[in-house]
Specification:
Growth Hormone, Chain: A, about 425 residues, about 80% helix, mainly alpha, disordered C terminus, 17 helices
Length: about 425
């Protein structure tokens, strides 16, 4: 495994620099819009445009990558993101930022397809799950560190936008210098929502709910904390700790889901997420240490939902259908993520800032209730625990990561067993 990690170190370094900039920009834009007097629903509209671009990217990115190649695609998108970062620092305009956010979303999805396709092509089935587990850890760590860059300068200055632009540009260096062979042409995610609901309704609804909660969290949580009078340094820490929680709790919840009905684990996780969302409605009356505990736990529950849904969906289908299933899951998440900032922005503007955590609580309760309903109906036969595919921590990035850890997972398990047998014999 060390040999593999050293061979893909340039790709991991490139995506780390890129995601640090991405993590910084998401929180920075929300706070900058708020400081310039934009209303909550306007902020929600601008920030949701990123997810519009992300969904569009699922259709456009593969064609672009196949036409000009992986390295050139990465370079083009890095240049675009760097330019967009500087432009947003220079000109704060609703319609300009809307267009820029759409373009930015397309670029970010393209980044994920390039890196994840490259990683996927470097390993065997036996190694793929472990490599993507490391990749997920790198992904969340970089996003968390990006939040801490907010402390380097005032949000109203150009400095933070310039730092993000520099990181986007620097991400080009290790990726452009790689000598790894480029992977096969990228495929468009195949989407069949009707089939997805038929075979895995809990996974489908779970991805929509995760998108609703996730889109609102990434875009409106900084605004919510600011409206409760938290400082910029405290907001960046809250966002970082929530992401760290997501990295820390995925494996424990995944371990449980490998031993019990995944729908039941989703039911319990959704109930707990709803409970901690309610707790987060009162964070301004807590000590800051308790705030971090609440957000760490909420982040762990929220971030684990998507990979649990993916694992549950993969259990229900054969290897030949996983590509289609992964595209459907990503599409459902994207639609939810577009609606999340818009809905939460309207609620925060016309009711109260606390509408955000209340919305979180409601959507998680909906998922818990739906999961319980499907389990009780017994319309869909859940696979036996012994036949479930192993859980892998994945992020809501592109369809490639879901396909990589889902396809041939039986072969993966067999290969791992053979590898262990060989090690035993050698001893």
């Amino acid at each position: 495994m060390r040999t593999i990690l050293s061979s893909v170190a340039s790709l991991l370094l490139g995506i780390s620099l890129l995601l640090a900039a991405h993590g910084l920009m998401g929180t920075l834009l929300t706070l900058r819009l708020a400081s310039d007097g934009f209303l909550s629903y306007q902020i929600g509209l601008v920030m949701s445009a990123y997810f519009v671009g992300y969904v569009i990217g699922t259709r456009l990115a593969p064609g672009i990558i196949n036409r000009i190649g992986y390295i050139r695609s990465f370079a083009v998108c890095a240049a675009m993101c760097s330019t967009i970062s500087i432009m947003q620092g220079l000109y704060v305009n609703t319609w300009l930022w809307l267009l820029e956010r759409v373009a930015y979303g397309i670029c970010i999805f393209s980044f994920y397809v390039v890196i994840e396709s490259w990683l996927n092509a470097q390993v065997t089935n036996a190694q793929r799950g472990r490599l993507f587990a490391v990749y997920t850890l790198v992904n969340l760590t970089a996003l968390s560190l990006g939040q801490q860059l907010l402390a380097l300068a005032d949000i109203s200055s150009l400095v933070l936008f310039a730092i993000a632009a520099a990181l986007f540009s620097l991400s080009l260096v290790p990726v452009s210098l790689t000598n790894l062979k480029q992977p096969e042409p990228a495929d468009k995610p195949k989407v069949d929502i009707r089939h997805l609901y038929k075979v895995a309704p809990v996974a489908m609804v779970g991805c929509i709910v995760t998108g609703l909660a996730g889109g609102a969290f990434w875009t409106m949580m900084p605004l919510y904390a600011q409206q409760l009078s938290f400082t910029t340094a405290q907001i960046s820490t809250i966002m970082s700790v929530t992401i760290i929680g997501g990295a820390a709790l995925q494996l424990p919840l995944g371990y449980l889901s490998d031993r019990y009905d995944r729908r039941k684990i989703l039911f319990v996780a959704s109930l707990l997420a709803s409970l901690f969302a309610i707790f987060s409605a009162f964070i301004d009356s807590m000590s800051f240490a308790l705030v971090l505990v609440v957000m760490f736990t909420y982040g762990g529950l929220y971030f684990a939902t998507y990979p649990l849904c993916a694992a549950h969906a993969n259990d229900q289908v054969g290897p030949h259908e996983i590509v289609k299933i992964s595209g459907g899951l990503l599409f459902c998440y994207g639609i939810g993520a577009i609606v999340g900032p818009l809905l939460s922005g309207v609620l925060m503007e016309h009711i109260s800032p606390r509408s955000l955590p209340i919305m979180f609580a409601v959507v998680w309760l909906i998922l818990a209730g739906f999961s319980r309903y499907i389990i009780a109906q017994k319309v869909i036969t859940e696979v036996e625990v012994e036949e479930q595919q192993p859980f892998f921590p994945v992020t809501r990035t592109s369809n490639v990561s879901l396909e990589a850890v889902g396809i041939d997972s039986d072969d993966t398990s067999e290969a791992l067993a053979n590898e262990n047998d060989e090690q035993t014999e050698s001893k």
